[in-house]
Amino acid sequence: MAHVTREQLDRLLEQALLDDDHASLADRLDGLARGYASGEVSRAAILVLAAEEWRQAGQPARALECFQRALDDGGEVSVDPRAGIADTLFELDRPAEAQELVGSIKAEGGVDAATALHVAETLLAYGDLRGAHEWATEGVVAGEAAGGTRDALLRTRYRIRVDLGLPEDDLDALLDLTR
């Protein structure tokens, strides 16, 4: 059993960037999660990182399994693992399941800004502009988004509104388009 530090994770991620080997990193992160005893980062957060790396390595089925384990673990994560599950289901050409999961996340309410951004970007990538707009708007209106997440939500929302042919509104005015 291992104690996991942020520094340890940072070293793993840095090395993987240098090696450009997502599968190896995913495998190492998965192993780290399996041997997890305690740490500065939750097991669920490590599993989400592993899942993202499996996706980058072109192995969405393994990613789905890691996202599900993160969800089952229930530990602290920056983005609800169900958002990653939905994204992966779309990738696996299972849009009905993905949409159902997105609907269940929304039905629960209280979605955090980072999750709203992830879902909005996923829906945008898979052609659901109206759904993406709703999620981006909800993320901004919730008012909890700060800094980079808020700016990303505003930018994503603005791009969607342009694609939908919608006029600028009060929320668009919050976006500094000169940056």
Q: Can you offer a commentary on this structure?
A:
69% of the residues lie in helices and 4% in strands. It has a two-stranded parallel ribbon. The protein is mostly helical and 179 residues long. The model has no long low-confidence stretch (mean pLDDT 91).
- The strands making up the biggest β-sheet line up spatially as 1-2
Report the radius of gyration as a whole number of Å.
17 Å
Helix content: 55-70%
Strand content: under 5%
Number of helices: 9
Q: Would you report the number of β strands?
A: 2
**Roughly what is the average pLDDT, rounded to an integer?**
91
**Global structural class:** mainly alpha
- How is the main sheet built? 2 strands, parallel
Report how far apart the termini are: 46 Å
Secondary-structure element string: EHHEHHHHHHH
Shape: globular
Features of the shown structure:
179 residues; two-stranded parallel ribbon; 9 helices
Entry summary:
The protein has helices at residues 6-19, 22-34, 43-56, 60-73, 81-91, 95-108, 113-125, 129-141, 147-164, and strands at 2-4, 36-39.
Chain-wise SSE layout:
Blueprint: E1 2-4, H1 6-19, H2 22-34, E2 36-39, H3 43-56, H4 60-73, H5 81-91, H6 95-108, H7 113-125, H8 129-141, H9 147-164
Parallel strand pairs: 1-2
Helix pairs in contact: 1-2, 2-3, 3-4, 4-5, 5-6, 5-7, 7-8, 7-9, 8-9
